[in-house]
Structures are given as structure tokens and as C-alpha cells.
Design brief:
The complex is a heterodimer. In chain A, about 40% of the residues lie in helices and about 20% in strands. Chain A is α/β, with parallel strands linked by helices. Chain A has 2 domains: about 160 residues, 3-Layer(aba) Sandwich (Rossmann fold), CATH 3.40.50; about 130 residues, 3-Layer(aba) Sandwich (Rossmann fold), CATH 3.40.50. In chain A, helix 3 runs parallel beside helix 4. The longest helix of chain A is centred in the C-terminal third of the chain and has 15 residues. Chain B has a single domain, classed as Rossmann fold (3-Layer(aba) Sandwich), CATH 3.40.50.970. Chain B is about 40% helix and about 10% strand. In chain B, strands 1-2-3-5-4 form a 5-stranded parallel beta sheet, sandwiched between helices. The chains are: A alpha/beta, B alpha/beta.
Chain lengths: ~300, ~280
């Protein structure tokens, strides 16, 4: 996803001098073409994320569209007050880009697990939260965020994610993309876990379930209509995210379901327990551990489905 | 820039007026930070009257010089200067801290013409200023960016990140002014975290530094009209000031970081200011 993002941004930036890519001394090999060909639109802030974010606000308030770029929590939680006061309060055109959402840097340990970022960014006034599900969505999100006015958080996976969308879907910020139609179960996914969710849907389909799949690439503002349609038209909703179960997609969907007056589908948040991972391992290993890989998702769905029936 | 005697008299009169507003505002609002507001009055007056290229009729004029009050808690005198400059009606100053007003207790850009950015949490302003200066360089714009810092906020690590960054990018359109009044929140700077030698620290990071008496209008005008202090380097003006300057019983007193002038103290402060030429 990071390559899709950088390539897309590079192409747009060649034509739009307002675009600035500001990195926190990270992106070796990935940002190099951008850095070499567009030096006037590139800033390496050094290992100083607070200054990076404050400067991004200053540049944005001077007419630039600034993408701050680093990995995991570094551009998000480290400079949180700069995001709140300097970026969000001034409604500045800063896009905070984090590579390695969830446990993409699994084996690097909990310092590198971005597992509360969606919750924290959702709470920031004026901030929108975008977590593409595959490289195609990452490209489309990048394009959309250039046009968008105001602060945004772009949560990317890392590298080598499979392409889920075989052609360009219609992409609008705040509008879920429906990948499968179904009327038993809805799986709502955000971020890089999408391939697992799609595979889980296929496995459930083989077991005879009719499964709707939504890629909720924008967690804030949430596509409330897509959630309510799923509540009306399917019997169970499961949210899936590589994120703490506190405050992320599951919470956002739960808030909508709790406040609406209508049919009550089964509902369960699938995510990471709200604790630090005591296990060492790759993203694949940790996903399996937390039952966020396709078999784990299927198992969690069936457990709930059968318990409630 | 040498000030003529008329200019000098005009600036002194304005400084007195700003101090009067500051006492009135913090009195009426029962607000803290009167000492922090009073220590930078001469700096603000010279900046706005003689140095900054700003137009009160067009606060968002793209070519304007930018001024950021990073020590947002000192905003009483800042609001007063903006009002006297004509950015907004002087009557607004009566509504400082008031329910439903536009002027909260830390510098705020929403609905206040002339306030470049909102501040209040220390250690933010210089980064934003640095970003603005970098944007100006990249766009070949001639505007300059001024940032007023407190001494206390030099405790913040985030203050030192742009101090490291700006010389690397030769931002000689960036000016940091430290209102070095030697008293912070819970003690003197020397007692809490001694910043000395502050000038040597900024120099070591690559800034061109000058030190002045921040209440000497002539010295302030001279320094700020010689920018950049060195081509290719950001400029730092360390202004040695007195907390609570202008009201003798407030001067150099930690108490007046917090205390709001009420009753006899308010009357005495106003009487003293009125006696001064």
C-alpha cells in the first residue's frame, strides 16, 4: 500500500506544486524518486515528529497540501497535541500518513503496533479517518485526499498486500464500498485486514451463508446509511479491524446501531484485545493468534451465530 | 532604525496605553498572566508599529509578515495591540474571558482578526512559524515570520526541534524573539531549569543571536530593523525583560504570573501607570 500511495502522490505532485511530502526520516527506498525529482516539494523533518507536524500545519496555512509520513504511531500519537491544536483546530490541509497500520510491523514489537490510532484520530475534531483495504483503495484515497479540504488521517498497510479490487471501484470518502451482496451476515472491514475478510466471506459462503462485505475505508465520517442498510437487510453484523476493539471501526458502528430505532441484528466487534501483545511474531502469526485471519474470523462469526440461534 | 523623538514619544504613549488595557482586561476578567503580558509590551509595540508588514484592513493579505505568539497565555497585551492597530474594535477588549465573547485567555484565531494561529500549549508556535518560513522560501515569497516565545517554554523539547531544523534550511526569514523575563510558572527560570547561557545555546544550534534590553524601544527597533542578523541564518532576539514591567509592585514577582489586580491593587496599578509619561 505504501508504494501505491507514494506512486500516486508522486504523479499528482508533478502536476500540483501545492503538494508537499514531509517525512520523519523514514521511507528509505520508497520515497526516493519523490525526493530526487521534486526536492522543492519534499521535506525531511528529521526524527522529530512534533516539529514535523507543527511545520506541516504552518506550510498548510501558507497554501500547501502537506502529507506527513512515517510509520506506525510515530506520526500519529507522538505528535498528538500538534495534530489537535495546530492541524485540527486550524482545519489545516495536513494529511497524516502512517505506514504499518495494525500489526504490519508485528515482529518489531508493541512499540511498532499501531493499534489505537483509529480511536485516537476519530476523537480529534475536524479530522477524518481513512484506512484503505488494498492498494487500489490506497490510490483512490490518495487522489480523494488531495481534493479534500481539512485534516485527514490516512492509515496504510505496509507492502505486498494483495489487490482485492479487480477494477477501479467508485470511491468516495465517507462511502463504504460493497464487495459482496448478501442477506444473512454483514462483514464490515476497515484497513489492511480486508483480504482476510473477503476470504472469510468466501469460506462462509461455502458453508451456505449469504454474506455481505463492506470495505469501510472511511471510519470517520462513517457511512451510516450502509450500516443501517445492513442492520435492516441482514441478520448479523461483524466489524473486523486490525485495531484495538476500543474506539475503532467496531465502536463507530456500535454507536450507530445503539442509537438507531429499528431492527437489531446480531452484532460483534472483531479486533485486537485492548492490551499489549505479549507474543512475538509476524503480522500473519499475530492475526492468527487474535483470530483476525480468515479462519479465525469464520470461527468467531460461527461461534456467535450458533450461540445466538 | 533610529527613532526620532516624535516616534519615540508615540511608541511610549502606545506602550502605556497597552499596559493600561492589560491591567483593565486582567482586572475585569479576574485573569492570570498579567506579568507575562506586561513584559513584552515594548516588543509588541515596536513590532506592530515599525517592523511588521501587516495591514489591519486585510488581515489575510497573502504577502503579510506573520507573527505568532507562541506564549499564548500572554495574550492580553497582544489583543490590546491588535485592537489599537485597528484589527478589531477596542471595545472587544472589555470582553476578555467573558461568556460568549471572542477573546479567550489564550491567543485564538477564530473570530479574532490579526491572530495568525491559536496558541496556549507551549512549545508549538516555533514549529508552525518554521513551516510558514519554509513555505515562503519554497515559494520565493518575501514575507517574514516572527515568533514570540517565553523563557519557560524553552523547557519544552518541542521548542528545540525547530531550533535544530531552521538553520539546516537557512531560514533567514524566520525570527524568534524570547521574552526572557526570568520567571516561569513555579519559580525563577534559574531555580526551575536554568537556561543559561541561553544565547550560547541558540548560537550553538546555528542561529544568529542578539541580546537586548527588551524594554528599550530604541534597542528593540534597532535590532528588529536589522533582520536577518546574518544572511542565511534564522535570527534570534533574546529580549531581557522584567515580568510585570511598568507596575512597580508587580515587577519581577512570581505572584503576578497568577494574581489578578483587584481592589486597591488595581487602583494602585492604574494610578502608577497614569503618573508615568
Amino acid at each position: 500500500m505504501r508504494t501505491a500511495f507514494i506512486q500516486e502522490l508522486f504523479e499528482i505532485a508533478k502536476k500540483d506544486p501545492r503538494i508537499v511530502l514531509m517525512v520523519g526520516d523514514l521511507g528509505f527506498g520508497v520515497v526516493t524518486p519523490f525526493m530526487e525529482h521534486l526536492p522543492q516539494q519534499f521535506v525531511n523533518a528529521g526524527v522529530a515528529e512534533q516539529n514535523m507536524t507543527g511545520m506541516a500545519a504552518g506550510m498548510a496555512l501558507s497554501g500547501k497540501i502537506v502529507f506527513t509520513y512515517s510509520i506506525a504511531n510515530f506520526p500519529v500519537i507522538r505528535p498528538l497535541e500538534q495534530i489537535r491544536n495546530d492541524v485540527c483546530y486550524h482545519n489545516a490541509n495536513v494529511r497524516i500518513v502512517s505506514v504499518g497500520g495494525g500489526m504490519a510491523y508485528g515482529a518489531l514489537g508493541p512499540s511498532h503496533h499501531a493499534t489505537e490510532d483509529i480511536a485516537v484520530m476519530r476523537a480529534m475534531p475536524n479530522m477524518i479517518v481513512v484506512a484503505p483495504g488494498d492498494p487500489v483503495e490506497a490510490r483512490l484515497a490518495t487522489r480523494a485526499l488531495v481534493e479534500y479540504q481539512g485534516p485527514a488521517y490516512l492509515r496504510l498497510g505496509r507492502a505486498g498486500e494483495p489487490i482485492i479490487h479487480k477494477n477501479w471501484p467508485e470511491f468516495r470518502l465517507g462511502r463504504a464500498i460493497q464487495l459482496r451482496e448478501g442477506n444473512d451476515i454483514t462483514l464490515i472491514s476497515t484497513g489492511g485486514v480486508l483480504p482476510e475478510v473477503v476470504q472469510a466471506a468466501d469460506m462462509l459462503q461455502e458453508k451456505g451463508f449469504s454474506v455481505r462485505v463492506l470495505s469501510m475505508h472511511t471510519v470517520k465520517p462513517l457511512d451510516v446509511e450502509a450500516v443501517l442498510s445492513a442492520a435492516r437487510e441482514t441478520k448479523a453484523i461483524f466489524t473486523v479491524e486490525e485495531h484495538s476493539i476500543i474506539g475503532g471501526l467496531g465502536s463507530a458502528v456500535a454507536e450507530v446501531l445503539a442509537e438507531h430505532n429499528g431492527p437489531r441484528p446480531l452484532f460483534k466487534r472483531l479486533g485486537i484485545p485492548a492490551k499489549f501483545s505479549a507474543e512475538v511474531g509476524s503480522q500473519k502469526y499475530l492475526r492468527s493468534l487474535y483470530q483476525l485471519d480468515a479462519p479465525g474470523i469464520v470461527k468467531q462469526v460461527l461461534d456467535i451465530w450458533q450461540m445466538e440461534r | 532604525m533610529m527613532l526620532t523623538s516624535d516616534e519615540h514619544a508615540e511608541l511610549r504613549a502606545l506602550a502605556k496605553k497597552i499596559r493600561r488595557h492589560t491591567i483593565d482586561m486582567t482586572h475585569k476578567a479576574r485573569a492570570s498572566h498579567v506579568g507575562s503580558s506586561l513584559s513584552m509590551v515594548e516588543l509588541l509595540v515596536v513590532l506592530y508599529k515599525k517592523i511588521l508588514r501587516v495591514d489591519p484592513a486585510r488581515p489575510d493579505w497573502p504577502e503579510r509578515d506573520r507573527f505568532i505568539l507562541s506564549k499564548g497565555h500572554g495574550c492580553a497585551s497582544y489583543y490590546a495591540v491588535l485592537a489599537e492597530m485597528g484589527f478589531f474594535p477596542v471595545e472587544w477588549l472589555d470582553t476578555f474571558y467573558a461568556d460568549g465573547s471572542r477573546l479567550p485567555g489564550h491567543a485564538t484565531h477564530t473570530y479574532v482578526p490579526g491572530v495568525e494561529i491559536s496558541t496556549g500549549s507551549l512549545g508549538h508556535g516555533l514549529s508552525v512559524a518554521t513551516g510558514m518560513a519554509l513555505a515562503a522560501k519554497r515559494d520565493n515569497k518575501s514575507y517574514r515570520v516572527f515568533c514570540m516565545l517565553s523563557d519557560g517554554e524553552c523547557d519544552e523539547g518541542s521548542t528545540w526541534e525547530p531550533i535544530l531544523f531552521a538553520p539546516q534550511h537557512h531560514l533567514d526569514n524566520l525570527v524568534a524573539i524570547v521574552d526572557y523575563n526570568k520567571i516561569q510558572s513555579l519559580g525563577t527560570v534559574k531555580e526551575v531549569i536554568d537556561l543559561e547561557s541561553l544565547a550560547a545555546k541558540w548560537r550553538a544550534f546555528g542561529w544568529a543571536v542578539r541580546e537586548i534590553d527588551g524594554h528599550d524601544l530604541e534597542a528593540v527597533a534597532l535590532a528588529l530593523s536589522s533582520l536577518p542578523f546574518e544572511p542565511g541564518r534564522p535570527s534570534c532576539l533574546i529580549a531581557h525583560t522584567v515580568k510585570g514591567k511598568g507596575v512597580s509592585f508587580m515587577e519581577d514577582k512570581l505572584l503576578w504570573h497568577y494574581r489578578s489586580p483587584q481592589g486597591e491593587e488595581y487602583d494602585a496599578a492604574i494610578a502608577e501607570l497614569e503618573r508615568k509619561v
